[in-house]
Amino acid sequence: ERLPDPTEDEIAYILFTSGSTGRPKMLGIGHGAVASFVSWQAAHFDIGEGDRTTMLSGLSHDPVMRDIFLPLSTGGTLCIPEQAMLADPHSLVDWILRCRPTVMHATPPLGRLLISAFQGRPEVSSLRHIFWGGDLLGRDVTSTWAEFNANLRQVNFYGATETPQAVCFHELLSHDLDVAPVGQSVPGVSAFVSDENGIELEAGLIGELRVVTPYIVFRGDHAGNFIRMPNEY
Fold first, then answer.
1. What residues have CB less than 8 Å from 203, skipping those under 6 apart?
2. Are strands 226-228 and 217-220 parallel, antiparallel or unpaired?
3. Contact indicator for 116, 65 with CB cutoff of 8 Å
4. Is the pLDDT of residue 20 over 70?
5. pTM over 0.85
6. Handedness of CA 64, 167, 174, 126 (dihedral sign)
7. Distance of CA 150 to the CA centre of its chain
8. DSSP SS3 for 224
């Protein structure tokens, strides 16, 4: 029997923020965010049933949703390494070369670790896309991957658990900046730099990055109750 279709405001999964402020928050994320994001990602970057996507994100890190549902929603293949390989860069490199992925989501620190394990030559002939996220993306990472993979498209994703999923993206067509920009907002999301009053600033001025998202997020308390959060961060 077919289960009833969920509504966008029903909680799809629960994650905790990283705790960078010292007080991690429990968040309940609605179905709409990941469904909308992976649909856009697949269409925008031409990802489909012939693609093989790695699952390298931790289970408590929200990019794992992209790892899982991007291939499963497009008819592609999800490639999952054994847990021990994630702690052994050389075993992970051997696995990557064997499974021949076409799509990878990775953090910049993982990119550097793989470069070292590849002995400075991270050549993966099957790889079409790397979607970076989770940290500042430096030229040292992107230029090295580009040098050994001529047809590779590299994209910087920016987002937070609260937003949720990535809210900005920037495709790296050159590597002349020390740090990749966060780029433009994904469809359906508004991202802009504002002053302390939330007023949008002109280009070139310094302020806070403000995000307005249509996706529903709930904050949980210690009793397991969830309260809907505002759609602006």
1. none
2. antiparallel
3. no
4. no
5. yes
6. positive
7. 23
8. coil
